[in-house]
Amino acid sequence: MKVMKFAQLDARIAGGTDREGGGEGPVVVLLHGFGAPGDDLVPLWRVLAAPPGTRFVFPEAPLDLGDRSLGRAWWWIDLEERMRRQELGEKRDTTEVPEGLDAARAHVEGFLDALEAALRPPRGKIVLGGFSQGAMLGLDVALRSTRPLAGLALLSGTPIATEEWAKCFDERRGLPIFMSHGQDDPILPFDLAGELRDTLASHGMSVEWVPFRGGHGIPSNVVDELGAFLRRVLG
């Protein structure tokens, strides 16, 4: 594994022909969740059974949460307030556009431009995705971009900015999407993930849905199913 900077973001690169991103194979870009360290998802590259030569890239979010945690974020979330409202039974406003989303999207779009120029993956052979906040950002980037993608991997994500997203759904008709979510997720409700799944499918996207018994995480069966998805869309 090695560390490189693409545009303004540092990233860890693994896989390929030399375990450091070498070769000309397809690329999987995974965005970590809120409060996680930049290397949070890196262990996945060793266990995802992607096609031989696949390169994995793990960008580090731009916001350092400093004293609040040891991790980073794509935009700030007041988790304590969110959990308080959830305990009161208040349903989250999925039309809300998080402050900082536009800046986060610009970071990732610039990152992908620089990555493509440097790594030169085959055209249309990039899978973009992430976990939790990273999954939401990955979907936001995909919907608002014409960049050719082989697929999306949305791990434990729920909808945001739905009124803005609704204007973009039809442009991604036919896009393969992998979605997983824990039925007992205490942070991002399972039913909201199901609503997102139904919305994406209703607009012609090919959604593979993998629910699991558990909370906010990536269990082994999701790893296995995601590997199979990568083999289908990148093979």
Q: How far apart, in Å, are the first and last alpha carbons? A: 23 Å
The overall pLDDT average reads: 94
Helix content: 25-40%
Largest sheet: 9 strands, mixed
Run of helices and strands:
EEEEHEEEHHEHEHEHEH
Q: How would you sum up this structure, described in words?
A:
The protein has one domain: 3-Layer(aba) Sandwich (Rossmann fold), CATH 3.40.50. The longest helix has 19 residues, at 101-119. The model has no long low-confidence stretch (mean pLDDT 94). It starts with a strand and ends with a helix. Strand 6 and strand 7 (72-73) form a beta hairpin. The chain is built from seven helices and eleven strands. It is an alpha/beta fold and 235 residues long. The strands form two sheets. Strands 1, 2, 3, 4, 5, 8, 9, 10 and 11 form a nine-stranded mixed sheet that branches. Strands 6-7 form a two-stranded antiparallel ribbon. Helix 3 packs across helix 4 (133-143).
Quick overview of this protein structure:
It is built from 7 helices and 11 strands. It has 235 residues and is of the alpha/beta class. The strands form 2 sheets. Strands 1, 2, 3, 4, 5, 8, 9, 10 and 11 form a 9-stranded mixed β-sheet that branches. The chain has a two-stranded antiparallel sheet with strand order 6-7.
